[in-house]
What we know:
Elements: H1 3-18, H2 24-39, E1 43-50, E2 55-62, H3 66-78, H4 80-86, E3 89-91, H5 103-108, E4 113-121, E5 124-133, H6 141-183, H7 187-202, E6 206-213, E7 218-225, H8 229-232, H9 243-249, E8 254-256, H10 268-274, E9 278-286, E10 289-298, H11 306-348, H12 352-367, E11 371-377, E12 384-390, H13 394-397, H14 406-412, E13 417-419, H15 431-437, E14 441-449, E15 452-461, H16 469-508
Antiparallel strand pairs: 1-2, 1-5, 3-4, 4-5, 6-7, 6-10, 8-9, 9-10, 11-12, 11-15, 13-14, 14-15
Helix pairs in contact: 1-2, 1-6, 2-6, 6-7, 6-11, 7-11, 11-12, 11-16, 12-16
Amino acid sequence: xxxxxxxxxxxxxxxxxxxxxxxxxxxxxxxxxxxxxxxxxxxxxxxxxxxxxxxxxxxxxxxxxxxxxxxxxxxxxxxxxxxxxxxxxxxxxxxxxxxxxxxxxxxxxxxxxxxxxxxxxxxxxxxxxxxxxxxxxxxxxxxxxxxxxxxxxxxxxxxxxxxxxxxxxxxxxxxxxxxxxxxxxxxxxxxxxxxxxxxxxxxxxxxxxxxxxxxxxxxxxxxxxxxxxxxxxxxxxxxxxxxxxxxxxxxxxxxxxxxxxxxxxxxxxxxxxxxxxxxxxxxxxxxxxxxxxxxxxxxxxxxxxxxxxxxxxxxxxxxxxxxxxxxxxxxxxxxxxxxxxxxxxxxxxxxxxxxxxxxxxxxxxxxxxxxxxxxxxxxxxxxxxxxxxxxxxxxxxxxxxxxxxxxxxxxxxxxxxxxxxxxxxxxxxxxxxxxxxxxxxxxxxxxxxxxxxxxxxxxxxxxxxxxxxxxxxxxxxxxxxxxxxxxxxxxxxxxxxxxxxxxxxxxxxxxxx
Length: 513
């Protein structure tokens, strides 16, 4: 049988093996054995890249001693650039050729000639396949092509194996995260699990999860894994003066290949000290808003594949869902407690001002706003009089006479009104004073008593805020409760007056008795 026919038969046998097993080690052993058998070699070894150590390490071999293999990774690293440039390296005398190291070890191992070809996956060299002979040999073109074909088969085996591993790993990650979300509402606990799993499964130096704090305009630490306390406490990450944070908060995924050379990166000295080189920054989203980010740090320069970026993005979105669920449950709990307390207050006292003061403080706490005002209609003058305020300075409250601005007029027409930015809304009254007070956004809702609007409840936020439909529904319901308290007190007063009138009327006709 001709040599070319043997080559073809061997490639067919290797290809057939791919269809019967996904065992990477078994497939690579078949490739190494085939290289020795068909090419009449002394030994063969398949090396794969270890990015962390920046060397190639043996993963499958036959015919080499353990003593020799301990020296071989250095040799594999040294010749890789030449291999990639020329497509192969053929060494006639491995005991003296300057392109290889450990000449004495090769003599002791009885290695005369070496043929080396690259193993590629998606056009990237991930390793090398080496054939060793015991007698000097000039490798023919068909031999070089055959070993190259075996290396391609090795690349396919490794690629398929990694794909299967990735599918299993991704399934495991999603399962663990889903279990965490279903079993816990503790955001810190969920993100700690996520950080550990991402770091371990992707071989990262460390992982950090941060959430955006709109009041401080900073990214605040929620969870981390693998990074020192000194690095984590290096300083604030502010949206205002940090280009990287700004890009992430716009919903962009950012890949940093070399942190020390990237202009967007701050704290370079601390990053270098921590031994960090590359980073992947993925936004955490809740509905359509970015609420934070997950950052993966590598100790070696690396690229992040599209598959990996998509997976981390999906995991970050799951984290966003966990946060949304936890916040929803917490809000439901607080709302239930609030309505219970408000109902108790309404039933236990007729002091309307006291009820409205408690209600204002609770609203501010639940919705996280800077301040509250409640104004009621003065029936005599037809104007709105300030009854209760919370969180606002006396200077602001005494800024001047109150006029009906467009926001108030709309609220008096039974419509909630949101002012997103007081600095740019031309309908805002006392704009300068509001800006000085730190007010950015406003929500105004009507206060009802039966079918009449008797006042306006306003919420003032010190950060730009898009009040959600749930926020507006909650505040509207609270305003109704306030209106109910006012109505109850008013009915009581009228009953007392009617009782007094009746008593006086009865007393005036005492002669009837």
